[in-house]
Amino acid sequence: MKTRSITVDVPLDLRSTLASLTAAWGRNAEDGWYRPMRTPEGPATLHVRRDESGVHGRAWGDGASWVIDRLDRWIGLEDRPERFAPEHALLAQLHRRSIGRRFASSGLVFEALLVAICSQKVTGKEASMAMRSMSHVMSDPAPGPLRLRLPPDPERIARARYHDFHRMRMERRRADTLIAAARDAERISRLADVSAGDARRYLERLRGVGEWTSAETVAVSHGDADAVSVGDYHLKHYVSWHLAGEPRGTDELMLQLLEPFRPHRGRVIRLLESAGHYPRYGARMTIRDYRDH
Domain 2-94 classified CATH 1.10.3720.10? Predict the structure, then answer.
């Protein structure tokens, strides 16, 4: 086991910062937050807790040193929300309330991409069910004191056929994208060493990966506070409603409204999501089941 403690002298809402890294594999327990992962040095599980003296991390497994050395990134200390000073009244108010919520950086690009692909054009609940199913079929127990499972093994994903994913609640489109990405997992993982922009350009050359998926990926893997998920079902309406008073928006309008806030456009979106929902019309997305297909 490896350990590390960090004294925190900036605002930090640990729970909300770690939320974006939880996906289907993290767990909040009485003694803190646990997260299994596949690092470049092997499997690991990270445990994070906070007390009056700072943030404390423990890690188990072959990748323990890798993850504990990056504890400051996992808790968002490389992000600089204090540099964001919006003049817009609503944003300024929301930002003051959530100054401690930071963009954490996992450094695990393939894992973040896997989550983004599973989340394409489905509800969050549907994506979580798919990822949990994959972990039971294509993974192994994680190291550490809790009974957790690692994220799915890219080698097993790469060997699978698209119809194997039907029992894991995924249709052929997402399954084919996952398989193609898994076959390129080694190069995708190395994108952690390049800028978020360069990583997005590479990812968007992959079959089935567009602007939405690449933005969702680097927001987690690189902690990119400027990433905008163009093509999202909801985001354009949040932005148009809260920044322009329009209950329905377009991606083009969203980008226009967000442009003055570079390099914090992703941060603005997070803030607006917390401001309350835009007016809804029509039916909501439903959960689909592909297991008998």
Answer: no
